[in-house]
Amino acid sequence: MNIYVDTFVNTVKGSLNWTWKSICFDVPWYTNYFWGLFVISLIVWVLEIVFPWRKKQSIFRKDFWLDAFYMFFNFFVFSIVISGFYTIIELLFSEIGIGIQSLSLINLEALSVWFQLLIFFIILDFVQWFTHVLLHKFPLLWEFHKIHHSVKEMGFAAHLRYHWMENILYKPLKTIGVMLLGGFEPEQAFIVHFFAITIGHLNHSNIKITWGPLKYILNNPVMHLYHHAYTIPKDRFGVNFGISLSLWDYIFLTNYIPESEGEITLGFEGDEKVPSSFLSQLTFGFRKEKEKNKTA
Q1: Using N-to-C axis directions, what is the helix angle for 165-180 and 139-149, rounded to 10°?
Q2: pTM of the model
Q3: Cα–chain-centroid distance for residue 293?
Q4: What digits encode the pLDDT tens for the residues 36-66?
Q5: Pair 48, 112: CB distance under 8 Å
Q6: Residue 81 burial by CB count (10 A; 0-12/13-18/19+): exposed, middle or buried?
Q7: Residues 76, 71: Cα–Cα separation, whole Å
Q8: Is the pLDDT assigned to residue 170 strictly greater than 50?
């Protein structure tokens, strides 16, 4: 038992130490996700201010500070805490003979760096797209995903407003994706991660971007806005599930962009039951419907 406790504690300490070093600029700039997230957020926010799509939306839109807090909570605080549990799971798998390379289908090391990054990006994005579909399709998972869809005014920080339970689902599936790729991330994977953060911020921003002909490949704010629309076609449980790529939605016919004016109501039926405070949202999804009604 001690080995599991020690593994958990050491991993959490390591994650906490790395985050602190990032804050203090004591890590290579290309792996400094703390300040990288801050800089990307600041740039996209300035673009929102200079080129607003929805002119009447305030610079400090509804829930601006709540979403800003969510960004750093989900990206760092929760990741530090949960890192120990994932390491224990890896240890348990290794003890029964399942290693990180057990499911390997592609030997990325045999490819050039740019092919490694491209394949890594495509596989992980598809895994995230598929996971996103599951969050909408299954009622149990949708209860947690409601937090993300409770956004009533879109802005860059809404990108990382999501229930911590989503990490519990996303991380193992992303890990499986990495295992399919030989069990490791390319050395230059930071390029993919920073690109994904930027695209995610832009998709939730108050900026009108379509990418022109590339809209069939890259997700964009116009397309993603309709993912958050209060009203969607009655025969669907959701639309436009793309994370960085819109490609999957066009392939699997989950795309839906009726117009591009941007003045639509966001949310979902019953979104008034989602509590407004961060602490109350932490337990949302676990409580019985009666308890949720009391909170509203």
Answers
A1: 110
A2: 0.88
A3: 28
A4: 999 999 999 999 999 999 999 999 999 999 9
A5: no
A6: middle
A7: 8
A8: yes
The C-alpha angle with vertex 19 and arms to 18 and 24, in degrees rounded to 5, equals 95
Residue with tokens 């592609």: 106
Structure token digits, residue 195? 């690109």
* Per-residue pLDDT tens over the stretch 121-168: 998 899 899 999 999 999 999 999 999 999 999 999 999 999 998 888
Secondary structure of 40-77 in the HEC alphabet? HHHHHHHHHHHCCCCCCCCCCCCCHHHHHHHHHHHHHH
The alpha carbon of 164 is separated from its chain's Cα centroid by a whole number of angstroms, namely 11
What's the CA gap between 22 and 10, in Å, rounded? 18
Q: How far apart are CA 73 and CA 278, in angstroms?
A: 10
Signed CA dihedral, 175, 178, 179, 180: sign only = positive
What DSSP letter does each residue of 1-16 carry, written as one string? -HHHHHHHHHHHHHHH
Q: How far apart are CA 285 and CA 86, in angstroms?
A: 22
Which of left, alpha, beta for 63 (phi over 0: left; psi -120 to 50: alpha)? left
Q: How far is CA 19 from CA 16, 80, 163, 190, 210, in A?
A: 5, 8, 21, 15, 35
Residue in the block written with tokens 């994650």: 15
Tokens (6 digits) for 77: 């605080």
